[in-house]
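Notebook, bench 3.
Goal today: get a predicted structure for proton-translocating NAD(P)(+) transhydrogenase from Lysobacter korlensis so we can plan the truncation constructs. The sequence was checked against the plasmid map this morning, with no discrepancies at the termini. Length recorded as 378 residues. Pasting the sequence as submitted so the record is complete.
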Amino acid sequence: MSTDPSQSSSPSAGPVVAVARESAPGERRVAATPETCRKLGALGARVRVASRAGLGAHFADEAYAQAGAEVVDDESALLGTADVVLCVQSPAAASIERMQRGAVLVGQLALQPGSDRAEAIAAREVTAFPLERLPRTTRAQAMDVLSSQAGMAGYKAVLIAAQLAPRFFPMLTTAAGTIRPSRLLVIGAGVAGLQAIATARRLGAQVEGFDVRPETREQIESLGGRFLDLGVSAAGEGGYARALTDEERAEQQRRLGEHLKSIDVIVSTAAVPGRPAPRIISAAMVAGMKPGSVIVDLAAETGGNCELTVPGQNAEVGGVTIAGPLNLASQGAVHASEMFARNVFNFVSLFIAEGGVAFDWGDELLAHTVWPPRDAAS
């Protein structure tokens, strides 16, 4: 049963936490599940969910109602009465303008200075927490949406590659002879890359992993992959790779190009948050690959690791198929939403307690995630 959000409870009731309906094209995930709605209620929050917000992830309105949330038809009124708004991707500027002044917005917001959404947040004095800015520390792991969603993306990328490839992945011994296993290379050994390696191994492919950070060798090998050592190290700070020098990059490219001539499938995952994806696979490398080879470029959303990637499309160049899928985590909306929602709950638990909202700006997770940035000591 949908309710009117303007009919608020007593003034002493806890903060209103609203779950927005996603508006980005193709987005099926939801920022809270019935499970996390119950947990928010246990913190003293009054949870209100936009009707049909969870349908893309197969969470019915009735499930939210049974979890103690109010299901609301009028999303404008929902946003206008919420103290905290949860989302997967940022609402449009027009929706932010309907939020009540001083509200809190939590999600993957991708805010840029001077953008319409950033200006709307400033005008409404909204406290925004773009979760992609969360420090990647041990304490933050339970809140890390980048990692949880990357795991789903890496899994789906290998399934796409298996569908596009004109070859079996595993070795098969048949009456028609022995079929050799496909040789698959995963570029980038972050969460998405490691999940891709594990998935490809389960499908029976002969798997290699490449990353310019030498410390990833042990992780790749622990999953049954072979570490591809091209003799170039770009170990950096904070678990991310540093920029290569021109000479290092040229040598890496030369050696990688030679190696790709024997590879059947590439899953490319190299990305640095907030920056364009590094270009690793050149058009010349693609030209040297075997006809029937497949590249699945997980970095398509930020420009692609392959020079020939077309975001959102499958392209064929010289007999090589290059896929540029977008928002792969949304294709596994049920489990992706469950993980995302738990990440969000763990984060908002930092400031929703005892039926109220209070920020401890000495907490580095809050201080370093909030937008615009502020000093943790302020």
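The domain at 2-133+333-369 is CATH 3.40.50.720 (Rossmann fold). The two ends are 45 Å apart (CA to CA).
Flagging this for group meeting.
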